[in-house]
Every structure is written in C-alpha cells, then in structure tokens.
Amino acid sequence: MDRVYPITRLPLPPGVRLLENVYITMRDGVRLAVDVYLPEAPGKYPVLLGSSPYRKEAQLGSPVKGYHSEVCDPGVYIPRGYIVCVASTRGTGMSQGQYNYYDIEEQKDGYDLVEGIARQPWCDGNIGMIGGSYYGKSQYYTAAQRPPHLKCIVPFGASIDIYRDLVYHTGGCFFGPGFMDRWASEVNSDCLWPGPVEGKLPPMNMSLAYHENFLDGPWYWERSLYPTLNRIQCPVLHIASASSWLNCRGQLLGYSMIKSTQKLVIGPPNYNASYSRLFWGDKYITEYVLRWYDYWLKGIDTGIMQEPPVLIYDRGADEWRYENEYPLARMKMTKFFLHSNPDKPDFPQGLINTDLPGMSESPDTFASPRDRSAGDKPPLAYVTAPLVNELKLHGPISATLYGSTLTENTAPIAWFVKVGEVRPDGKVSLITKGCLKASHRKVDESKSKPGQPWHPFDEQVYIEAGQVYDFQIEFQPLFHTFKAGYRIWLQIACDDPEFRLNNIQDRVMGPVPARNTIYHDQFHPSHLLLPVIPEAPIIAPVKQPMWSKENMENIGLSRSTMM
Fold it and tell me: What predicted TM-score, i.e. pTM, was given to this entire model?
C-alpha cells in the first residue's frame, strides 16, 4: 500500500525510534497497520501490544488524548527494555478490511497479530498485551484465541458483556445520550480517518445496530467476552476501577470465570472514564505493572507472585488492603429495608435500617419526569440514622423495589437508583448506581447470585398500570467504608438524562407523565442488599499504594454530587 498521509505527531522521547505502519497479514489476507516504538539500541526485545479502532498515532503525549491514548505512553516503557506495538483493528486508520465492532473476525485477528509480531526481527518471542477500555477488551478476546507467543495480559477497565456493561447498561436502558451515541460517532470518524486506504471498507453502522438489537441476543453474544473467558490460559492481571459506570461490573464478574493464573487490583473510582489519565499517568501503578511484565516476559523474579492475589482500594477509608479472593469469603450479604419516617419530613422521605418493615407502613409516591427547573433533587430518597460504627461494603450490591406506576403507557417506565453517603455536614456524595427498565424485569434465578440478579433481557413484557411488581436492580459493585457518624443514602427516580427510555418496539417516547409508588411493608419488603465485610486481621502489609493521592485529586476523582 503506497498511500501516505502527512500525519502530525509529537516528537519522539529520547532513546525511542518509531517504525510507522508495519503491516501484519491476517489469515484472510487483510493487512493491519501497526506502529512500533522501539529502543534506539538494536536487538530483540519483549513486546507490549495494544489493539483498537482508535487513532494509534495519538499515543505520544498520553494521557491527554482520551480514548486514543488508552494503550500506554511508549516513552515510559521503552527505557525499561520493551517494545510497544499499537495496532489499528481492521477497517480503521491505515488498516484494510471492514470494522464490525468486536465481531468474530476482529477477535481472530488478535491471534494473527500476536503471531505475526512474534516473527518480526525485533521481537524476542515474548509478547504481553496492554491498555484500558477497548484495549482491555481486545486483550481478553485475543487471549481466548490462545496464540502461543502471548505470555500475559493486563486489561484495565475492560467489561466482558457488551449488552449489560455498555450499550444497555445493566438494566435494559440505552446508554445513548450519556455515552454510546457519542462514542459510536467518534469511532466511525476513526474508521474513515485519515482518508481512503486500499482494501479498507466503510464501517458498520453501530448506532443502527444498537437500536435494532434492543434485546440481548446473538448480535451481543458474538461480541461479548464472557462466553469464551474460560478458554484463557495465559496469566492475567486485571485492573478494575471501583464503581466505574462502564466496566467495573463485568470485569469483576469475569475474574471469577477465568481459571488461569490471575491477580486483581480494584482501584479508585473512575467516574469520568478517564482511563488513560488514571492508569498511565501514575508512576505507582506503572511500576506495579512493570513488575508483572518483568516476571512473565523477562523471567525476573520481582516478588509480585508472592503477594496476595487481590488488592482493593477503599475510598471511604482511604486505604489499600490485600485479600485472598474476590468476592470476599467473609462477605455477609445483608438486607437494609426501606421504611416510612414517622416524622414525615419533606425530604428525604424515608428511612433505611435492618429491621423488617411493619404491616401498616404507608407507600411513597412521586411524579415523573421530575421538574429539573429547580435543580436536580431526586423525587424520592431514604437514609439511615448516623452510623454508630463504621460499615465496610466491598462487593456486589442490588436493590429489590416493590413498585407500581399509573400512566397511560408503561412502555418507557424505568427505575434509576443511586447509593451514596451523607456526611455529618449534610452533603450527599453519590457512590454507585443501577437501573432497570420495568418491561425487562424478568430474572433467571439459576444464573443469579446474591447482589447480582441475572436478567436475560430476551423479551420485554410491559407492566400493567397500577399493579405492584418486584424489581431487582443491580448496581455497579461498591468498595467503600461508611464512617461512624455518616449515613447511607438511597435515591430513586424514573428518569435520567444519561439514558434513553424507549426503544424501537415501544410506541411512545419516554419519559412519560406518571405517578410512581414504592411500597415497603410486611408484604412488600423493599430493600438494599449490601455486601457487609466484617473486620479481619491484615494478611500482608501494602508497602506501596497503587495510585498516588496527588494523581487521584488532579484528575477529579471526587465522588459525584449529582442528584
């Protein structure tokens, strides 16, 4: 391919050279473009590979370029004796073929990329993978293909379920206005950029596919990773971001599905989805990851495999702690029930505690959509009394709400629930959230676990107006200690600007005017199911935190106060 585009790049760091657009041929003849960052000194080196549809030319200067720089900053890894290869998936950038969003051909390309790179004169035959988000997901699907020269992977912020973790976001509600519409547009731009390339075809229409496939099914199963995770044999270092809106749930679920050698780091919340700034912009996590690569790619005993397998950051306690497993064996799933407040305050309306509700508790009713002209105060909220002792919550979390709605058309009715903490000064900080479209309430109990209801999302059955149903709602996992004197906060709404409530089968646009009711009595025990962690002896000291406090504060990881 002789077409050349004048692409402006940042200057190479000292000691780094670049081979632009090295082409690796796939099994079907399609050629993928790879940028290769090497040490200036000649020789063979282990390789760190990242693959995505994003513009590979944007890696230098990471972590300031959003999606595109989520593989790594080559200037950090080259001086440590590694080569960094950044590949454009088929149909993107300077690569041939057609982009089809994680389809089986893209997954098979992972095998061919690894083995093609292993044959290059500068590769010593030891290949690891690197990167977050898309670059993380491509590691899982490549490892499942079992290329012989792939020795380890380090997926960061990488979900395994395209339907539940990304497009329809745990509850059958399209995560379009909040993320997916914008992301699809930007990826299509990356497919067309920098212009025509011999053998490159127009990409699939992702936005159309999302809306055509509003239920889980074959289109998502082909592109999701959980059906093939049990094929992974190489060592895996998972790095998850606690309560991340996009990837945390799926990545932690995937940890339990893989049977190869594994380690798990659960880091600070990443509400802004700034993976490259959180991960590659911090010296501490970089050094930890290099210890992993040095062990598996260079054969250096760095001591990393003698450390406990799980490391968790608790933002409420501001501490790191080693554990032997995830979910934690000592976790006690505990129901915290919703109650009426006998003082009948205007807001928050109700209470939360571990007492079973009585027979005579009155339900709470609110209108939707909410009037946001006076701010973002949620229509309904419940709160515990100030905690006498601190309460550590680490793991999956769900809510069971008994609810009904009065409206002319129930098709777009959905529940949006958020959990946070109330500080002694009254400030509310949200920590995690979940959602569920009412017509998608069906649960497969055989696949469900405590705090993790499994909705098959294979059909939608509209609820009857005025009838009471139970809705089991999954949240993003929680890793947070509520201090003594703080209170647990739960808020409930039926609208959220980040989500589109109607799909192409619904015959009405959402949200619709409705009167919604939450019941909490002996026959309708609405509750939160929380992963309470009893205190236990420390199994090993954490000598070095995985992220610096300065970096966490600089990139805005303070908890959301949005109502």
Answer: 0.95
